[in-house]
Design goal:
seven-stranded mixed beta sheet; alpha/beta; single chain; 7 strands; about 210 residues
Length: about 210
């Protein structure tokens, strides 16, 4: 049976390690997604080169050209997303705070991965803060994006133990390995569930 692949767009700002994990997952014939576009606000992002090497369409939309008008920048992003045919969006190291325009435009269809076990340690410097707090478990979270930063509904989490010898770097490296496994797994379940819901709605309409 041929798997229907849903078009998914990626947004990144830097090296794109989570984007790489998602791209590799989508290469599996049984994975229910294909990457239709990779967008970065940083024209020099290494993640764009990685996506080009994978044969994917890329677009750089430099936020600096829009001065401080965040919504205008996001309208340009949204136009590219619509043109690409994307049905879902994954933030993969996208380091820009989103305005209500984009979060509402893609409500329920935009995912993000965060390097902590939310609701603990939203925002930046999560590994340093976890060590300072003395927690025994740390990890990562995939959640839906809403207007409130890192507060959207949680779709999946992965945990790692915090070791007495950990530094922010060693802890972060272990968390990152979990991110690369968690994000594709959650995306698969999210798309499968969305497809099942659409099929159920169609059956109700036919009935």
């Amino acid at each position: 049976m041929t798997v229907h692949k849903i078009p998914v767009a990626l947004l990144l700002s830097g090296r794109g390690s989570n984007a790489t994990a998602l791209i590799r997952a989508c290469e599996d014939p049984d994975f229910p997604a294909r990457i239709c576009l990779v967008i970065s606000n940083n024209p020099d992002a290494p993640g764009l080169d990685m996506a080009r090497a994978a044969g994917l369409p890329v677009k750089a939309i430099d936020h600096r050209l829009f001065k401080k008008d965040r919504e205008a920048h996001e309208r340009a992003i949204d136009a590219c997303l619509r043109e690409s045919g994307a049905e879902a969006v994954c933030l993969a190291g996208y380091m820009r705070l989103l305005t209500p325009f984009l979060t509402q435009a893609w409500a329920g269809k935009m995912l993000n991965i965060h390097p902590s076990l939310l609701p603990s340690f939203p925002g930046l410097h999560t590994h340093e803060r976890a060590l300072e707090a003395g927690v025994r478990l740390h990890g990562c979270t995939v959640h839906l994006v809403t207007e409130d930063m890192d507060e959207g509904p949680i779709l999946g989490q992965a945990a790692v133990p915090v070791l007495p010898t950990d530094t922010p770097e060693t802890l972060g490296a272990r968390v990152l390995r979990q991110e690369h496994q968690l994000y594709p797994t959650v995306l698969r379940h999210f798309l499968d569930k969305s497809a099942a819901s659409c099929q159920a709605e169609a059956a109700l309409l036919v009935g």
